[in-house]
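Honest question from a wet-lab person: if I give you the sequences of every part of a complex, can you actually get the arrangement of the whole thing, not just the pieces? Trying it with mine:
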Amino acid sequence: MQKQKRIVAVISGKGGVGKSTIAVNTASLLSLRGASTLLIDADVYNPCVSFHLGLLPHPVGLLDVLENKAKIEDALVIDPASGLRCLSASIQLNNKIGTENLGRLIKSLDYDYIIIDCAPGLSSVVEDVIAASNELVILMTPDIPSVTAAMKLISLVKDKIDHTRVHFVLNRVAEKPYELSKREVRTLCQGRLDASIPEDAEIPKSISSKTPAVIHNASAPSSRAISQFSSMVFPEAFHRGAIRIPFLGTIGGGGRPLFLDNYGFR
Ligand SMILES: Nc1ncnc2c1ncn2[C@@H]1O[C@H](COP(=O)(O)OP(=O)(O)O)[C@@H](O)[C@H]1O
Ligand SMILES: [Mg+2]
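Yes, you can. This is the full assembly:
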């Protein structure tokens, strides 16, 4: 029997709230656990996944594949640190953006997990990504504009997706008095808040070192929170006991995973 692929769109109402950070780190963790994982950068006007991963710009990308100008094999880039497969948007500024075939492309791909990093808001590209996905991760920061924009977005797409497959993530939580509290955010999200990621300088540091935070500093508070969130959303990948050690390959698969503590679990 064919395994059910999990296709997860990472979305937000507002920009700059941590979508790319969460998409890159979650996808890297899945790949480090030995799961076949593809990260698609669908932020077509501002693709940045390759910066997070330190990958060289690739001349062929998602839009070329969707327009049948290139084969998927020629567009994929492998992150050597985790084995993660990446498909970047790689837009030329004069490109016409046509993503209506995204669902068909995704159906034809054989991965356990496909994580799709989106642009903020609800453009036609984001609508196409959501239509091709079966789960959503929605990012917010603890301020009214960000949470309100997230709620607006969810109300626009609620009929298109099973609401039990929407994961709400609050990022950049600094516990300052002027922030919305987790309790307030939970109330605004109708009782749903799946994760809280702290404000942590290790995230910008990891981006400047071109390595996902969960590899750059696995024990940082943000890395631990992202690991905890990923293991909660993808328990089947995190409980099977295999872990890929960067540059060495996959180890384990039977007993207790090796170096588990490095990835925020005990
Ligand atoms: N938990 C965090 N703590 C500190 N900085 C963060 C955190 N999450 C994201 N950032 C910073 O916020 C900026 C925007 O993050 P990014 O993931 O690019 O957001 P988006 O993809 O939603 O636009 C980046 O410069 C990143 O370093
Ligand atoms: Mg982004």
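Two things worth pointing out. Strands lie at 6-12, 37-41, 76-78, 85-87, 113-117, 135-140, 166-173, 195-198, 242-245, 249-252. The longest strand covers residues 166-173.
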